[in-house]
Write a structure and sequence with these properties.
Blueprint lengths: L1 E9 L3 E8 L2 E2 L2 E4 L4 E7 H4 L10 E10 L4 E9 L9
Antiparallel strand pairs: 1-5, 2-3, 2-6, 4-5, 6-7
């Protein structure tokens, strides 16, 4: 299970080893059908973030660098829900 982040950054421009989501390192990545970078982070790691509020909005922020060392970032408030039958 993963948390997927879609960007508008060209897939080939990203230095993958520099990509994090709230300090969680990237687990896998791919290009979408428009050639943009898509990052995937392990849900188990995201669930351990300090201050994560289940049933409330949490700000998730992706950061990284391009191959030219240009920093990029984006953030979004995301509602985190508890799926019935699943535990944190």
């Amino acid at each position: 299970q993963v948390v997927t982040v879609h960007t508008e950054i060209a897939y080939g421009a990203v230095e993958v080893s520099t990509v994090y989501l709230n300090g969680v390192p990237i687990n896998s990545w791919k290009a979408d059908n428009q050639g943009n970078f898509v990052a995937k982070f392990l849900m188990a790691d995201v669930k351990t973030l300090d201050g994560l509020v289940i049933g409330g909005y949490n700000t998730l922020k992706i950061v990284g660098l391009t191959h030219d060392d240009v920093p990029f970032w984006g953030e979004q408030d995301v509602m985190i829900i508890d799926v019935a039958g699943k535990t944190r």
